[in-house]
Amino acid sequence: MPWCNMNVGLRDVHFKNQDIPQLRSELLLSGDLFEDPCFPADQTSLGDVVVENVVWKRPKDLCANPQLFSSAPTQSGVKSGKMSSPWVVSAISVLGGMRELFYMVMPDSHMQEWRDDPSYEYLGLFYFCFWHFGTWTFVTIDDRLPTLDGELMFTQSTDKGEFWIPLLEKAYAKLHGSYQKLEYGHVTDALVDFTGGVAETYDLNFSEEDVSAQLNHLMETISHELSSHSIICFKINVSCHQLMKLFRMKLCSDKELHSCL
After folding, report:
1. What does the similarity note say (predicted)?
2. Is residue 203's pLDDT more than 60?
3. How many Å apart are CA 110 and CA 112, to the nearest integer?
4. Closest by CA position to 16, among listed 37, 32, 34
5. pTM to 2 decimals?
């Protein structure tokens, strides 16, 4: 899936008309932490499925020294929560491995990080950018996250002190209307929202008679797309044991391809 550069045709669009500089100014004057009226810390933001004993907590209530990033974003640092949607987890994992794309979705990440600076005043406000209705749109959230029994309910980092993942997912849930609205979807849908690119799906119906030739064609297609800097994801439902065996052999034999995937 090819993606577009954020600087091309950028328009300053704020979701729900929540202007970030204005919000920051108001919070600095009041001295309060941000509480988002457009995505409140209650059942309406979770959706129709009622879960008992949900407590919304800020990162500082979950660990002593919260950070957006404990290290550079990676694919392996993404962990599914009890109520995560697999397609969202997969898309966030892909984004974590694509450094250039990641900083399009989370602009000014260094300015949003917690800082040990006496002049820095934490506001509890974060913002992300998604491709929405043909333009890059800023989505602003507060830092209150839903927890159950002291644990984050949705997607999170393997490092309990790192919070870019649950905050990103919260912003994406707000864009859709609630966390429940993320229950069903496709990883390509999220990647379009994360990249502004165009998704293309290949339905692989391999015949038993000519598996090897079709597999070679598939690998040539993948190599071509990778050379064009496309993002490639797989969903494999295999009933043919021979196909699965050949796929693994081919993937393992192509070291360059394996490292990209």
Report:
1. Belongs to the peptidase C2 family.
2. yes
3. 5
4. 37
5. 0.81
